[in-house]
């Protein structure tokens, strides 16, 4: 197995272990699900302008669904894990590299989501719960790496859209991908390719994600225990404090 295939498989074993852990600890799966739903709402607020943009809306929705959504990616992950060598063998190098980055981000995000959810109360997540759980989890270097991987995926998608022959090669892979059990992987890659190509340049899009995610992380890690600090964190997250906030 190549290094890339081995890396994809290893990352997806981490994802599988996190899923198993959530089934074994009572209430953990529900808390992770609530956390993912909150993070999706946070993304929708933080990037409301991009989601409403004619130029960037499709790419923002792709990120929201593929990276931030609470959806069930079990089928896609099972395809990744089962045929990781086929991904590297069948798809062009740039596409296989994108899958490898996505697998690493997926593993890191699932690990951080589990760790953060352990510090959450049961039920819907209020902004103040999120701030406290984020701070209790810590792992600033992992949070930074999570942002870096997200930006790398965006940059990689932007890069490969500049190679017209690659889009044709990816389209030609539909039949072999379906035969190899990679239909969901193929769908995700084609969608990402098409929405980034439609932007006709993703530099501004990537820069906005970079600045906003880093600003949010800095605010959350710096937030103290005062109402003012929490209000700042809420504002950066695009979420106003609610009556559901816990003292």
Walkthrough of the structure:
The chain starts with a helix and ends in a 10-residue tail after the last helix. It has helices spanning 3-24, 28-46, 48-51, 57-68, 74-82, 84-90, 93-117, 127-137, 140-160, 164-172, 174-179, 183-199, 203-222, 227-237. The chain is mostly helical and 247 residues long. It is globular, with a radius of gyration of 19 Å. The longest helix has 25 residues, at 93-117. The chain contains 14 helices and no strands.
Which keywords apply here?
mainly alpha; disordered C terminus
How do the helices and strands line up, and which of them pair or pack?
Layout: H1 3-24, H2 28-46, H3 48-51, H4 57-68, H5 74-82, H6 84-90, H7 93-117, H8 127-137, H9 140-160, H10 164-172, H11 174-179, H12 183-199, H13 203-222, H14 227-237
Helix pairs in contact: 1-5, 1-6, 1-7, 2-7, 4-12, 7-8, 7-9, 9-12, 9-13, 13-14
Write a brief structural summary.
The chain is mostly helical and 247 residues long. The protein has helices at residues 3-24, 28-46, 48-51, 57-68, 74-82, 84-90, 93-117, 127-137, 140-160, 164-172, 174-179, 183-199, 203-222, 227-237. 35% of the residues are buried.
Largest sheet: none
Which band does the percent of strand residues land in? under 5%
What separation lies between the terminal Cα atoms? 52 Å
Individual helix count: 14
Elements, N to C (H/E):
HHHHHHHHHHHHHH
Q: Gyration radius, to the nearest Å?
A: 19 Å
Q: Helicity range of the residues?
A: over 70%
Going by helix content, strand content and strand pairing, the class is: mainly alpha
**Which stretches are low in confidence, meaning pLDDT under 50 for 5 or more residues running?**
240-247
Give average pLDDT, whole number: 81
Silhouette: globular
């Amino acid at each position: 197995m190549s290094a890339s295939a081995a890396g994809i498989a290893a990352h997806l074993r981490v994802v599988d272990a996190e899923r198993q852990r959530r089934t074994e600890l009572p209430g953990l799966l529900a808390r992770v699900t609530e956390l993912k739903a909150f993070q999706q709402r946070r993304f929708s607020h933080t990037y409301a302008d991009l989601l409403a943009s004619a130029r960037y809306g499709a790419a923002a929705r792709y990120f929201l669904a593929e990276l931030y959504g609470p959806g069930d990616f079990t089928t896609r992950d099972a395809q990744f894990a089962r045929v990781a060598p086929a991904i590297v063998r069948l798809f062009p190098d740039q596409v296989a590299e994108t899958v490898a980055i996505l697998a690493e981000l997926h593993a890191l995000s699932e690990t951080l989501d589990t760790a953060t959810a352990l510090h959450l109360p049961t039920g819907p997540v209020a902004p103040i719960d999120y701030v406290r759980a984020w701070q209790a989890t810590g792992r600033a270097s992992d949070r930074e790496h999570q942002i870096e991987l997200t930006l790398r995926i965006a940059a990689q998608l932007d890069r490969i859209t500049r190679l017209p022959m690659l889009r044709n090669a990816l389209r030609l892979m539909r039949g072999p991908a379906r035969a190899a059990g990679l239909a969901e992987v193929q769908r995700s890659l084609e969608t990402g390719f098409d929405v980034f190509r439609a932007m006709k340049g993703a530099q501004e899009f990537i820069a906005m994600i970079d600045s906003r995610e880093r600003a949010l992380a800095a605010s959350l890690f710096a937030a103290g225990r005062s109402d003012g600090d929490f209000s700042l964190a809420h504002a950066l997250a695009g979420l106003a404090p609610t009556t559901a906030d816990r003292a």
